[in-house]
Description:
Number of helices: 6
Oligomer: single chain
Helix content: 40-55%
Amino acid sequence: xxxxxxxxxxxxxxxxxxxxxxxxxxxxxxxxxxxxxxxxxxxxxxxxxxxxxxxxxxxxxxxxxxxxxxxxxxxxxxxxxxxxxxxxxxxxxxxxxxxxxxxxxxxxxxxxxxxxxxxxxxxxxxxxxxxxxxxxxxxxxxxxxxxxxxxxxxxxxxxxxxxxxxxxxxxxxxxxxxxxxxxxxxxxxxxxxxxxxxxxxxxxxxxxxxxxxxxxxxxxxxxxxxxxxxxxxxxxxxxxxxxxxxxxxxxxxxxxxxxxxxxx
Length: 264
């Protein structure tokens, strides 16, 4: 059974190139229905053939090509006519091993060239995919930025806007921030001078209503600057805004040192 399969698999090249007899093609078609491995081989060969068809410019052969090929094929080295040699003689066929070696060399060189071209195509495809991924991320970032800008404009245009200035404390004594609060449109917060934190720590923004701190989100400073636009829960009347250092991911209630604070 294995030998039968190998024999059928050897027909794949001729199948793709159209070199099988009708009987061989019928047999191989039936084999492809049940053999996924041979079907994969055929698909790969068809892709290679398609690449070659697109990269090699077709040209019409010279009109005298057939006559020249027949003349060479019927003449042995040294000008001897093969047809004139005695029957059963081997002299006219001594050139076959050399010809076979030349054919093998040509096929090998062509295979190397094809491999290089396929490698270049794969490299170009990978670069295109990477460029696409970068572009998609940039589009998402721009969408996020445009959404933040739109919300910030709504807060700035609110009629019930209140401003709170925050001063630095403790490990961020040189930092300062500002919070613009609108119960109807939300909170726009910005800060500068925030020191970098270890990877397991994060800045967390709080609004305080009475004695109850409510998380307003996590800050991600870039070169010490941070901006955040968020909503204010309905019915909450903030009296203070603060920033603390907390474990990565944030916490439901403040546990770390306060670095910015300001009151209405």
